[in-house]
Write the structure tokens for this entry.
Amino acid sequence: MRAPTPQQLRDRFGKNLRVLIEGTTSVSQVCRDIGVNRTQFLRYLSGEAHPRPDVLHRICKHFGVDARILLEPIETLREEDDPGPDPALGFPAFLSRMRAFDHGVMPDGFYRLLRPTFTVPDMVSASLILLSSLPDGSALARTAIDSVHFGGKNQRLTWRQRRARSLAFQNTVGTAFLFLTTTVRPAMYLSYFTHGHDADNQLFFGYTAMMRSNEQHHALLLPSILERAGPRLRDGLAARRRCGVFHWDRLMETERLFFEDWNPFGPFTPRWIKGLY
């Protein structure tokens, strides 16, 4: 078998890199996160150049891959790295149902997650989520957890320290996200949203459960709202301007009514639904 030429290797790496950056907010942001010159990164994407070993190490670490991306298609590597569930557990059919994501109900694009903060009273947190399809038909969600959720009001962390990812799972009545961050202090939280309460599928109502407590007085279960912003970058930028941590008084009426009436042990109450139609 003939060894690949240097140009073929550059083309393979460029193609793999283009697959890896699909669904990211921007090439510029990826370059900043990795710490690489944007012009040079574009040369990698176009197959004009190979990265130095130290740059390749940072790229692999950022995307969670290894140096085989220089030689093999990324799809092949993903198949090899995913051994699948143990047949003895009887999970294959269960997992296939979980991966059958209905993108018509929750399309790819930007969303705004709104919930009370876990640690600071009378404050609300809004964060941006990017939802994107994976080759197997499932959906991947990316976000950054607000610094306030890692501690007090004055906590300040970078985006890289706060980023979290989740696969999105659906059943007939709702969608669930299990977000995990392994930076700074590991955190995991589950958000679940029901379908059908908003005729236009723009608002999804549910709750968020924190899997561990970072503070002595830390709420573990809170009401949450997922608002669809749109598929375009400008939709995400507009939603990002409405994100952050702010006082309860700035909530819209529908949001405030839902948060006030929410009962973790009972059904949805009709008072907040009236404001939707």
Summary: The domain at 6-81 is CATH 1.10.260.40 (434 Repressor (Amino-terminal Domain)).
